[in-house]
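User: Fold this; tokens only.

Assistant: Input:
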Amino acid sequence: MAIRLFGRLAGLLAILAGAPAAAGTPAPQATAAPAPGEAAQLARKARSEAILTAEGVPFIAWLPLVEDEGEYRPRSAEEIAGRAYALTLVAYKASTGDHEGANEAYAAVEDRVILSPSEIDFLRDPQPSDQDRIHFSWQSEAAYPLFWMLGYVEDLARPEDQIDPDPMVRLVSGRAFDALVAGARLRPQAEMLDALDLTYRYHWAVRQAGLDGEPPPARLNPDVLMERHKALNWLVRYNDDASWDDVTTDT
């Protein structure tokens, strides 16, 4: 479903229809109201832009709309819990170096939790490189919005500082996987899409700042945003059913 990279034609036309015309060019005329789904997407975009404006975060009005309900098959609680567990597991090993403990934990859920190819390689490696340990230690930032989607995290904090991974480690180590799934209270898709839309626009802003040789605006953390964006894109199957390793964060 990686069509956001190219933009949604209807959304762009709706934006352009209300934009000032260039000198000597007749302004385009809107011919119809947005379709119901598109109206929800435009409203979501407007709410995100209001937050960006209040925080002093730059944005471009023609950045495409994100997905809306009905355009993807929602992930189940078991799928989300499995992915959150996998990310927490590799982040735990990366941060602590506990090779045996991480592999024992995975052996107990191997039939329920699907690791990506790179995660399997990392988990099996008794002496991973420092580079791999740094990379996988960041996966707790991707697990965080998934635990939020499951209802285990109350509020999705602004992407400024790194989260404390210890509560997530305790969450997965302190109960059976079935209990983790059964205790989930999935948030509404609309709430998750609001988070995706804002994260997408935040991510554009920090990437553009990097291209311009400027620091990230408004204390936004590029690394936190990268992992959060990836997790939210995974939730809407942005790259269809690609492996976690292949989920992209286009802006």
